[in-house]
Amino acid sequence: MENRDYIKSLIYQQNISQDISSCYLYFEALIRSNLLKLKSILPEQFEIFYAIKANPHKEIISFLNHFGCGADVASYGELETVIREGTDPGKISFAGPGKTDEDIKAAVRNNICSLSVESPEEIEKINDIAGQLRKKQNVAIRVNPQKNFSGYGMKMGGYPSPFGIDEDKCPYALKKISESEHLEFTGFHAHVGSQILDADAIGSVFRYLLEYALAVQNQYHFEIQYINFGGGFGIPYYEKQKPLDLKRLQDILKELTDTDEFLKNFPKTRFIIEPGRFLVADAGVYLSKILYIKESRGKKFIVIEGGMHHNLSAFGHLGQVIRRNYHIDVLRFDGQVKETTSDTFDIVGSLCTPLDKLAEHIELTDDVRIGDYICVYNSGAYGYTASPLFFLNHPLPKVNVIKWKKDQDVI
Ligand SMILES: *Cc1c(COP(=O)(O)O)cnc(C)c1O
Question: Which of 274, 280, 379 to probe ligand 1 with, by most ligand atoms within 8 A of CB?
């Protein structure tokens, strides 16, 4: 992890009371820095819709709003949240394989930018609901590409999938939409995976979708208004993982878009990406107080007050095939100095299940004491709201968003 010491210094600037047993801290300055990094490599006409399921904290939504981001939502609850936080409905996309009548009604009533259709049946349903509400709804087809993309952490396309419409059924879906009185076809959407660290793999999805949209545009003689390339930009969680090569991605995007032909083909098209994790994951940490340090048959265990019910991803139960240790430090807030030693531990949570294991055989170079805090980095995405918070009915972690101060730049 590149900026681990810097993040540690940001945490130490906070007044963490010893009364707190577990908490999440999200640093806006780090979110802003991720956003600026991403913006700097995107062609200028590209827009960013933040996929709020990664972290739907309202202060984060409104912070990203403030910097011009739209939002990608997947339920009417999420839609209501982003509207409440002031997101422009013209910058909201909505996707998900199981949209209910309530979801669709909320989308139609709020005149959102685009609703992704994910099955032919859904097309009829959206048309009916838009008709009842006497409105016309913008819809994009979420494509499940024929092609199988490699280099993806978590795949959501290129194989039999509940997400999107199979590429070979898209002409049928297109026909259906064009015959629907209350629907307006805008273009295409693809989100084929998550936690992608290979710039070329991401580039191949951009290339695929642009070629596909162009082929449809040429065949049917209309202008594609909207192309949404999805999210999935990954971050390095484990030792030896390398960050996404943004420079490489920039070069690929430039090659695809910086041509006269591109401008001629898509003069008025809106280009969207909808990253979640990339913007917020490394901007958040999860802290939990050490309750016990014990030994069993020669093995040392650190037991923290929190556990997987607070941070399921860090405990390896959200999409990982093999549980690996996140980056972890020991922090001490009581003013006493830590000494350098070296010892190896397993770190476990307080739940009565062997699944509640945060780290295995992790080497800690500080002397560790009861009352110190375990700090889990990269906890800003798919943490709090992606965890089974009520499992075993322990207290919830506190959540605190640390405001960005004007002119505060991340080093
Ligand atoms: C989850 C999701 C995203 C965000 O994924 P990340 O891997 O966090 O970037 C974007 N779009 C859709 C449709 C999603 O379901």
Answer: 274
pLDDT in tens, 89-129: 999 999 999 999 999 999 999 999 999 999 999 999 999 99
* Crossing angle of helices 28-41 and 58-66, rounded to 10°: 40
Span 139-182, pLDDT tens digits: 999 999 987 776 655 565 667 889 999 999 999 999 999 999 99
CA of 134 relative to ligand 1 center, distance in Å: 31
Which two tokens mark 226? 């909207």
Q: With bands split at pLDDT 50, 70 and 90, how would you rate the model's confidence at 132?
A: very high
- List Cβ neighbours of 284 (8 Å cut-off, separation of 6 or more): 24, 25, 26, 27, 55, 378, 379, 380, 381, 383
Residue nearest to atom 10 of ligand 1 (CA): 231
Residues with CB under 6 A from ligand 1: 51, 53-54, 72, 95, 191, 194-195, 230-233, 274-278
Quick check: helix, strand or coil at residue 137? strand
pTM over 0.70: yes
**Is 374 strand, coil or helix?**
strand
**Pairing, β 226-228 against β 114-117:** unpaired
- Residue identified by tokens 């940490």 is 285
Distance from the alpha carbon of residue 230 to the mean position of ligand 1, in angstroms: 6
Q: Could you give the CA distance from residue 317 to residue 215 in angstroms, rounded to a whole number?
A: 41
For residue 289, the SS3 value is: strand
